[in-house]
Amino acid sequence: MIQLQKIQRVFRTAELETTALNTINLTIEAGEFVAIMGPSGCGKSTLLSILGMLDSPSDGVYNFKGQDIARFREKQLAELRKNQLGFVFQSFNLIDELTVFQNVELPLQYQGIAAGERKQRVEAILKRMQLDHRADHLPLQLSGGQQQRVAVARALVINPALILADEPTGNLDSKNSEEVMQMLRQLNQEGTTIVMVTHSEHEARYASRMVQMLDGQIVSERALAPAAEVKYA
Amino acid sequence: MRNALSMLGNYLTTGVRAVLRHKTHLALNLGGLAIGLAAALLILLYVQHEQGFDRMHPDAGSTFRLEQTFIPLEQRFPVTSPAMKALLQDFDARIEVTRLAGVGEEVLIQLEGSPLQIAMTHAFQADANLTDFFQLEVLSGDLQAALSQPNRLALAEHEAIRLFGHSEVLGKQLQLDGSNHQITAVYRLPAQSHLQLNSLRRLSDEVNAQPLPMNTVYNYVKLPDGLDLDAFLAHFTELVNAQAYQGQAMMALELQPLTAIHLHSDLSFEMKVNGSASTVGIGLLLAALLLLVAGINFINMSTARAGQRAKEVGVRKTLGASRWQLFAQFMLESLLIAAAAGLLALVLVELLLPWFSALVNRPLALSYLGAFGGLAFTTVLTTGLLAGVYPALFISAFDAKKVLSGDFQRGSTAIWLRKGLLVLQGAIAIGLLVATAVLQQQLQLLQQQDTGYQRDARLLVHSIANEHLFWAEQQSLLSSLQRIEGVQSTSLLDMQLTDTISQAMSIQLPGQTADTSLPPIPQLGTGFNIVQTAGFTLLAGRDFSSDYQSDWYQQHDDQATAAGIITETLARRAGFNNPADAIGQQWLLQNHLALTVTVVGVIADVQVGAATRQPEPLLLICGRSPMHIGHILLQLDPLQAMQSRLQIEQLLTERLQRQDIRLSWLDDDYTALYQNQQRQGTVIAIFAALAIALTCVGLFGLAAFSAEQRSREVAMRKVLGAGPFNLVNLLANEYLKLMAISAMLAIPATYLALDAWLAGFSVRVTQSPWLYLLAAAITFAICWCTVATLAWQVASRKPAMVLRQY
Fold first, then answer.
1. Where are the alpha helices (DSSP H) in chain A?
2. Three-class SS of residue B805?
3. Which residue in A30, B551, B670, B767 has its CB near the most CB atoms, within 10 A?
4. pLDDT of residue B799
5. Interface probe with A: pick from B319, B324, B398, most Cβ of A within 10 Å
6. DSSP string spanning B102-138?
7. Which residue from A79, A107, A109 is facing B6, i.e. has the nearest CB?
8. Does B14 contact A166 at a Cβ distance shorter than 8 Å?
9. Interface membership of A52 toward B (CB under 8 Å)
10. Which range, of A6-20, B256-270, B372-386, B406-420, averages the lowest pLDDT?
11. Which DSSP category does B21 fall into?
12. Which residues pair with B188 in a beta bridge?
């Protein structure tokens, strides 16, 4: 589904040039669950931003479902993003002024989907996330785990081809973390492709493949057998 | 469509909740904008009113008032001769003319069954085609009949009420010019007009027959399209000079567009005190400045707080919102706040309108479905759009990736812009402070100006028929007044010292040639004791006195004689550098009767009218007046002045059989000369104060924000041992530096602007550098206090509480 070839990302300021990503080659197949790991500053968030089309590479080819999108303009990227991608962030990034229902509904509104269908889909996804009784709450009235579940629901409601998760459990305690990871795994088993950035070896085990990064480069890649076992158990 | 609506709903929900979360911010933003809008709306309402004058008349755009500049007097008058009508129509039959006679005159009338006379001002004789030119609403009766038949009279509604107590007056009779007149119509004139026509009657044959040199009527003309106006004026200037003034270049004909009279004409013999284009200009400038200041507050506070909306922008972008959609969302929010502020402003306008109407002396009214509604809507919308564009662009441009990954920093452009705008506001505040102060100083200077005459305890009796004054055989009326207790001296004037001199004659000095001859000299007819009564400063010679019978104007067979008093400027122009040398000179004034004037006194220059012009040479002639009415001037004992005034009024009512003797203190008349400027001064002072207050609001909002931003730094410094005063200065200094830049910008700009304004006065204050320093110091002090209050709060917090939050 995704092919990155010789991706470079260079940040320039007046005095300084920093190479955040250096010759990244990566292929992600549909249905995979990829965990990207590495120390702080190794470029994994930059990679995720490029995968999520929030940032464009300075050089290289980004092939998404057969299209090279590396030179797409912002408007075209926004179009792809709203139809194909779901995001889950470490700090949830829910809009505090909107209710749970409205937060989840938002991407559907940007897609221009009719009100009736929106209601139906939001209700269905909230039910699936066991959040239906919280639909009218504001994000700040929920626990961290619940907020992250809302964020996941929001990512899922458009039936994305790909979910990008940036340390989705970074702000959660272990019980809530477990809950969110279980959910991601289940989504993956149901066929959603997931790319997740994480610090935690433990959480990386939920993935089917682990990509290790250092100083803007991919240093190792390996399939994770235990995860595969869990997956097919 | 439904989706767009639901998106709109979404924007509204977010907007309203986000805004409500920061109530102080909202209050400052909304309040500031509402006050700025309300003030601007009030001013614009006034401007709209002023600009709407005389636009309701048919063909107002092609109607002009015929005017002329008298070259020797260097003065322009709105009156011309009734004989112009025939000349104009001979020139081009398409030219329409209507005339109004009765300029500046009062007529005395007597109501049926009453022995007393009443003066009627602005009583006009008019051509029957008057209604083709002006929109007059006939309330009852037949106006055309009144304008075409003799001994008929039409009354304005308010005049009917003044005379009879009601407006049902058709068929009533009154005595006017010695004959009975019947009232056959009652009409109403639009208030928004330069016209004041209290009564109308047919143009008399006498007026119709007046020759070209008699300038007694207002001529209004409608000119055909395509007429070359310059050639037209040149032609008639030459024609009139040739026919009326033996070919001398005495006058130049001018045209004043009807719709420009109210704002651009301030001549003698205007029917009303007209408005002033400069007041309107200053008003527009103030409205723009106020909106600018309020708009800047809005922009500054919006962008300063934008960081709090950054996450939302990031999320929305990630979810697929385009930049345009986000721009629209934040623009909508700005418009909503502007609309809310607009509503609040309307409430304020409603509440303040009576006060403001009195302040500007205009009957302002709000028509929500009419002009005012449009004005309010446009102003609010424009402000909302202009103030909203930058914040919306700025916020919608946030980089989603940076915002969401946490390395988001507010752009430095926004900070520079905020600082730049704050500097602009500071400059406006300093400029307005100085302008207000200079304006007040100048007004005070003008009012305290030595006019060459005394104003304290001087009482003026207005408009008495000259049969009782200059033309009376015996000065018995003055003798009676003189006997009233507290009256120290009395005299006559045929023009008011606070008005304009409108008569001038050529003077022929002994041994004078055509090359050295003086231009016609403005002159004033007076009674005995004028120097003492008016308080002129005598430089040489003596006052007019009844001890010298030859002083008073006397006609002999083919010539006349009178005593004269001249001003020092006139003495100098006539070649007498030492005033005493002019005494005893005999000057010949060429009139229909040659008049020999013997100079008996020289006085210091007299400023007639307002001090916007240089004092002119002036000749006072004893006992002579060509006018129909004159005025009595009395010098009273200040201790008994009120008592004497009552007795004077009583005596005149009895002796003259008049109900409406008008008395005024010379000092009040003088102050009234500056009424417009005073009003201007008050308006500027109030709105300048408002602009300064709004700047403070903005400063407070920004300072509050920056104090919040820097609370961690403050806490750290406190931990390291900084004292509260030190911290307050730390935070305030940033703003003081900006205000210093404001001062540097404002001072030269203000100096130049005020210098240009002051150049229009013959006497003017010099701008003191101290004033500028003071204004800057005041602005600094206000700024420091505002910021310090906030900084103190931040600096007083326990560092542990602040640091723990991070």
1. 44-51, 74-84, 100-111, 115-128, 144-156, 174-189, 201-204, 225-232
2. coil
3. B551
4. 63
5. B319
6. -TT-EEEEEETT--SEEEEESEEEE-TTHHHHS--EE
7. A109
8. no
9. yes
10. B406-420
11. H
12. B137
From the list B14, B320, B406, the residue facing A95 with the nearest CB is B14
A72 touches chain B (CB under 8 A): no
pLDDT, tens digit, 9 for 90 and up, residues A87-121: 888 888 888 888 999 999 988 888 888 889 999 99
CA atoms within 13 A on the CB side of B364: 29
Express as a percent the part of chain B with pLDDT over 90: 34
Contact B400 A110 (CB under 8 A): no
B402 touching A (Cβ < 8 Å): no
Q: What is the mean pLDDT of residues B434-441?
A: 87
**Spatial distance between the Cα atoms of B733 and B722, rounded to a whole number of angstroms:** 15
**What confidence category does residue B675 fall into, taking pLDDT thresholds of 50, 70 and 90?**
confident
The residue among B8, B20, B313, B318 with the most chain A CBs within 10 A of its CB, best to mutate, is B318
- Whether B526 contacts B491, CB under 8 Å: yes
Tens digit of pLDDT for each residue in B25-59?
A: 788 888 889 999 999 999 999 999 999 999 999 99
Residues of B in contact with A91 (CB under 8 A): 404, 406
Supply A20's token pair: 């955040």
Q: Which of B17, B321, B404 sits opposite A110 (nearest CB)?
A: B321
Q: How far is A229 from chain B (nearest CA, A)?
A: 33
* Beta carbons of B317 and A166 less than 8 Å apart: no
- Cβ distance of A106 and B316 shorter than 8 Å: yes
Mean pLDDT of B726-746: 85
Specify the pTM: 0.76
B503-518 pLDDT, tens digit each: 767 777 776 655 555 6
Sign of torsion over alpha carbons B448, B449, B451, B453: positive
Distance separating alpha carbons of residues B173 and B575, to the nearest angstrom: 58
Torsion of CA B261, B262, B266, B272, to 10 degrees: 110
Per cent of chain B over pLDDT 70 is 93
Question: Chain A partners of B404 at a C-beta cutoff of 8 Å?
Answer: 54, 89, 91, 93, 166
**B182 near B173, Cβ under 8 Å?**
yes
Cβ–Cβ contact B21 with A under 8 A? yes
- Take residue B211 and report the two structure tokens written for it: 């020759």
Q: Do A106 and B10 touch (CB under 8 A)?
A: yes
Compute and round to an integer the Cα radius of gyration of chain A: 18
B325 inside 8 A of chain A by CB: yes
Residue B410 to chain A, least CA–CA distance (Å): 16
If one counts every other C-beta atom within 10 angstroms of the C-beta of residue B689, the result is: 14
With CA atoms as reference, the chain B residue closest to A50 would be B401
A40 DSSP 8-state letter: T
Please report the pLDDT score of residue A27 as a whole number: 92
Please report the beta strands in B39-94, taking only residues with DSSP state E, as ranges in sequence order. 63-70, 75-77
Give the residue-averaged pLDDT of B262-272.
83
The Cβ of residue B646 has, within 10 Å, a number of other Cβ atoms equal to 11
Cα(B287)–Cα(B284) distance, integer angstroms: 5
Phi-psi region of B539 (alpha: psi -120 to 50; beta: other; left: phi over 0): alpha
Select the residue of A78, A81, A102 nearest B10 (Cβ to Cβ).
A102
- ipTM rounded to 2 decimals: 0.72
At B596, give phi and psi (nearest 5°): -100, 120
**Integer CA distances (angstroms), A62 to A53, B277, B664, in order:** 10, 67, 92
Q: B514 in contact with A at a CB cutoff of 8 Å?
A: no
B399, two tokens = 């980089």
Q: Which of A93, A111, A166 lies nearest to residue B315, judging by beta carbons?
A: A93
* Segment among A75-84, B35-44, B322-331 with least mean pLDDT: A75-84
Residue B235 pLDDT exceeds 90: yes
